[in-house]
Amino acid sequence: MMSPADPDQTPHFHGHRQRLRQRFLEGGADALPDYELLELLLFLAIPQKDVKPLAKMLLARFGGFVGVITAEVSQLTQLTGIKENTAAAIKIVAATAERLTRRAVSDQPVLSSWDKVIDYCHVRMAHLPREQLHLLFLDARHVLIADEAQQKGTIDQAPVYPREVVKRALELNACAIILVHNHPSGDPSPSRADITMTRKIDEAAKAVGIALHDHLVIGRSGHASFRALGLLT
Q: Which residues contact 182 (CB under 8 A, 6 or more apart)?
């Protein structure tokens, strides 16, 4: 019988894992294509299996690395080879990325770090499978007080938005609001319903002295700003 240390008994992917790990440690994430970076992540949850086929399947299924880590747990676990602990490892990466980008917009006026605000919103919302409206509440110095999800679904199915938005802003003593919602289709162009609802929220906010700074529509590959488009004055 062969010894456990016999190289003929060592799974072929062990050397591959070591080489990938070393390349990552020496060159960082830029040294690896997406499927290899995802392999490194899967190594942590699946220690005794060649995960390259699984990594490539996930990238194809969700359209890229960001799509994988922002997929819902239920979407991940319905796939062959993905158990709950693997899905948890993937979602930890998404949570870490979100926390890092949020940190970049915390404790400073958001209007002076607008690119970071866009990055944060994109990480948080671009790949959500359903439409959501988020409210960014700002204090008198335009520092972020809170980011709250107001509603899931489609924006034109929530006529209560203006009243609820203003109520919550007053509860938080916010002086300004930024609306952010995603388009799961990927196209960030505002719809007619988006424009109508934004005007109603703007009017309701102005009535109590709260400014609506902007409404951002986030798509997978870009965003639209109501203010930049001249839809808010």
A: 125, 126, 128, 131, 132, 217, 218, 219
- pTM of whole model > 0.85? no
The answer to whether 126 touches 219, Cβ cutoff 8 Å, is yes
Q: In CATH, which superfamily holds the domain spanning 112-225?
A: Cytidine Deaminase, domain 2 (3.40.140.10)
CA separation for the pair 216, 40 (Å, rounded): 34
pLDDT band, residue 136 (cuts 50/70/90)? very high
Tell me, yes or no, if the two domains 12-98 and 112-225 fold the same way: no
How far apart (Å, rounded) are the C-alpha atoms in residues 40 and 34?
A: 10
Topology classification of domain 12-98? DNA polymerase; domain 1 (1.10.150)
pLDDT tens-digit map of 69-94:
988 899 999 999 999 999 999 999 98
How far is Cα 174 from Cα 144, in angstroms, rounded to an integer? 9
